Amino acid sequence: MQNEKILIVDDQYGIRILLNEVFQKEGYQTFQAASGFQALEIVEQHSPDLVLLDMKIPGMDGIEILKRMKVIDEGIRVIIMTAYGELDMIQEAKDLGALTHFAKPFDIDEIRAAVKKYLPIRSN
């Protein structure tokens, strides 16, 4: 049986590695993307169950990435990560169906709890 799949989208290498490590330890299958184009390719090829999406990514911004992800997979679950104060972006993302948001710097335990809530691991 395949593990639940999480896609981590952030242009900051350190954050991707941190989240990747945390969620692999929790038993999820993880994918990483540093750009919107990479992220959309992974959504098309691997159909992740949940996406952790940073809103401030060079090139294609988080809102655009979120819109395009929803076109590929309407039911995709997305948690957004934002810099402090991007309130208009947060509201727009929630209107587009984002589940919840975290401001950076985030508390890793809070993100873990949110992921467990929205994507519980099925036991075999």
Summarize it.
This protein has 124 residues and is an alpha/beta fold. The chain is built from five helices and five strands.
Task: Write up what this structure looks like.
The chain has 124 residues and is of the alpha/beta class. Helices cover 44% and strands 20% of the residues. The chain has five helices and five strands; from the N terminus they run E-H-E-H-E-H-E-H-E-H. It has helices spanning 13-25, 36-46, 62-72, 87-95, 108-118, and strands at 5-9, 29-33, 50-54, 77-82, 100-103. The chain has a five-stranded parallel sheet, sandwiched between helices. Helix 2 packs parallel to helix 3. The N and C termini lie close together (7 Å). The model has no long low-confidence stretch (mean pLDDT 93).
Report the principal-axis shape.
globular
Widest sheet, order of strands? 2-1-3-4-5
What are the low-pLDDT stretches, counting only 5+ consecutive residues below 50?
Answer: none
Main beta-sheet annotation: 5 strands, parallel
Number of helices: 5
Please give the share of residues in helix.
40-55%
- Which strand-content bin applies to the residues? 15-25%
As a whole number of angstroms, the C-alpha radius of gyration is 13 Å
Q: Tell me how many strands there are.
A: 5
Order of helices and strands: EHEHEHEHEH
Straight-line N-to-C gap: 7 Å
Structural class: alpha/beta
Mean pLDDT across all residues, rounded? 93
